[in-house]
Structure formats: structure tokens, C-alpha cells
Amino acid sequence: MTQGIGKKPSLATQNQGFTHELRQRTKPKLAGGGQRQMPWYGERLQSKFFWRSIMKLFSLLKGLLCAASMSFMMSGTTYAADQGSAAEAEAMVKKAVAYLKANGPEKSAEEFTNGKMFKDRDLYVSYYELSGKVLGHGANPKLVGKDLIGLKDPDGKLFIQMICDLAKTKGKGWTDSYKFRNPTTDKVSEKIIYVERVGETWIGVGIYK
Q1: What is the pLDDT of residues 44-92, one digit of tens each?
Q2: Within the chain, how many helices (H) and strands (E) appear?
Q3: Upper half-sphere CA count for residue 185 (Cβ side, 13 Å)
Q4: What range defines the domain where residue 42 resides?
Q5: Is 21 a domain residue?
């Protein structure tokens, strides 16, 4: 008796045959009866290697964006750290007023102008008579002795007159903004200054925007 005649195919063999037949039927056919070739991009889309490469690319781009964001934030923080704050300006004025009362105008003017005690980043002391004459200047020693009551900023604002008027009428406080050279950047920037009157003079420290 011949073996295998009439033997029923196994379930696995039947499934393989069914899968093969289904693939053949579902493949798009050309007019001549041939099988249409899968486009090159179709083969790549089905490739595990292709999708792994895409995921790696996205991960790389995500990392670059995060690094750029952190760099931007750090640069902003560094820039802010290079500038004095309003609170620091007020504190320096009060320290300078105390120094003036303890050491007198001549020694104070010299320290404000050429010393190091009252210079911190873009913070420095301006020391003027109420008339507008410069007694001490931490950013530009060449201004000492000059009468700047008529000095205007690039927009035409009489800012020294404005500061003197505030010192005369209020005794202390913050001015409106004006434009003046920033000693750390050497560029003209917007500035406000906190001043306190001491007798017939005023001491001020400003911050740049």
C-alpha cells in the first residue's frame, strides 16, 4: 500500500496555501497579466530599518532643539546677570550718600570717578550740583567740572535738567527714561536713574533697559 495517498494535508500546510493564494489574488495586475512591481518607496516604507532611521532622525532633531532652547535661555540669563537691577542701583546710591557724608565732597568725588568701590558692571555713580555741574562721574572722568544742564539725549530730551528738577522738588526717586551711553556695551541705550539729594548736590545710579 502506497503511503501518503489520500492523506489529508496538515492545518499549517492549508494555512500556508491559503495565505499564498490570497497574496496572489490581491496583488495588482498589469494589462498583460504580469504582476505590478512595488514602487521603491513602498519597499522602504515596509522596511524596519527605514522606520528606525526615521525615529533616530526625530530623536536627533529633538535633541538639537532642546540644546538650542537651553542655549537661548542661558544667553538671556547671562545678559541679565551683566546688568544691574533697580534694587542694586538704589542700594549703591544709599551707600554713596553714606560715603559722602562720612568722607566729604572732595574725597567722595575722587572715589566716585576713579575708584572701584562704586563700579559694578553697568552701575556707576553720577555726582552733580543741582545747577547741573558735574562733580564726579564713574563712567566718564572727562565730564567732571563741566556744566551739563543743557545736555540733550539723541531724542532731544534735556535729561540733566530733568534729573536736577526731580532732586530739587522731590528729594529722591526714579526719573523718566532717556538715552545715554552704556559703558559695558559702548552703545546708546534707554536708561532711568535713581537719585537722592544731598544738600545742594545729588547722587544718582541708573540702570539700562
Answers
A1: 555 666 667 777 777 777 767 756 555 544 444 444 568 999 999 999 9
A2: 6, 8
A3: 12
A4: 37-81
A5: no
